[in-house]
Write a structure and sequence with these properties.
By secondary structure, this protein is α/β, with parallel strands linked by helices. It has one domain. It has nine helices and five strands. The protein is globular. The chain starts with 12 loop residues before the first helix and ends with a helix.
């Protein structure tokens, strides 16, 4: 929800207006096929992360075998990454993975393509908050575990999304509704994790979200995210959105730990891109290390 691409972050209201007015192009074939495909079904569009369909090995017109194709190499594919945090080993994040408790839970509904991006910040939330759940979105095959949890009366879910479209204005609530959830129920923030175009599609094409209250993020906070280009400093990434809503919901400790962890991730990844080893721990690194004991 991080810029006009939504780059793994919560959509801004300005983005929502431009997207729903039809000023942007339709989703790409790769995004469409990845999300519409049943989990485990082979790709039909040659997605470099998910592999190509065997049918692409032959010319569709003649049936003749195609010449072998050069192996796909993604940007950063030659970097040695830590198996624990997926960051370059030069500045591993593992020593700073500190946990925090929160009454408010976070569930991520993640577009399939977002899982393959090492710059995704949604996974940072799961590192900090143990109860965090991550569901992969497929338009035609909703996750059965997610549907069961949404039907569970123990939880009070809110879908985080802008509030500037009239067709769901009656569902919009403020963050006070999260704080007013009875103690016997668990408040849940549902974040749509993907580019803005992907998140808008998840919101519009998921009938099971239609009955949920819509919680817009209202903040003057500016983004600190440096790993993807943002159209505006007001567009926050997924981890920043979660931290801000946790803070507004009264979960100050969890928000502070997530903020620190995000800062360490941001600094470590940016330094690794320059092949620079961070020698002097930042204040956020020192706080997280002390919390880990």
């Amino acid at each position: 929800m991080c810029d006009s691409r939504f780059a793994d972050s919560a959509p801004s209201q300005q983005d929502a207006r431009s997207e729903d007015s039809g000023s942007t192009q339709e989703a790409s074939a790769t995004e469409e096929a990845s999300a519409d495909r049943h989990p485990g079904e082979p790709s039909a569009v040659g997605d470099p992360h998910l592999g190509e369909s065997p049918s692409l090995d032959r010319d569709p017109a003649t049936g003749h075998p195609r010449p072998p194709r050069r192996e796909f190499k993604a940007r950063g594919s030659f970097v040695t990454r830590c198996a624990g945090c997926n960051l370059p080993e030069l500045n591993c994040l593992c020593p700073y993975q500190a946990k925090a408790d929160s009454r408010v839970q976070v569930w991520l509904i993640t577009h399939p393509l977002e899982h393959h991006k090492p710059t995704n910040t949604g996974r940072l939330i799961a590192d900090v908050l143990a109860p965090t759940r991550v569901f992969t979105w497929y338009r035609t095959t909703p996750d059965e575990k997610l549907l069961a949890l949404l039907a569970d009366e123990r939880y009070a879910p809110f879908v985080v999304f802008p509030d500037d479209q009239p067709d769901y204005a009656d569902r919009v609530v403020e963050v006070e509704a999260v704080r007013r959830v009875p103690r016997e129920r668990i408040p849940v923030l549902i974040l749509l994790d993907g580019t803005w175009r992907q998140a808008r599609r998840i919101f519009r094409k998921s009938p099971y979200l239609e009955r949920l209250p819509v919680l817009p993020l209202r903040t003057d906070r500016l983004t600190r995210y440096r790993l993807r280009k943002s159209a505006s400093q007001a567009h926050l990434c997924t981890a920043e959105v979660a931290a801000e809503l946790l803070r507004q919901s009264g979960e100050e400790d969890a928000a502070s730990v997530l903020d620190d962890y995000f800062d360490v991730f941001n600094d470590s990844y940016a330094a690794s891109r320059r092949y620079h080893k961070i020698e002097t721990p930042s204040p956020a690194m020192r706080r997280l290390a002390a919390r880990r004991g």
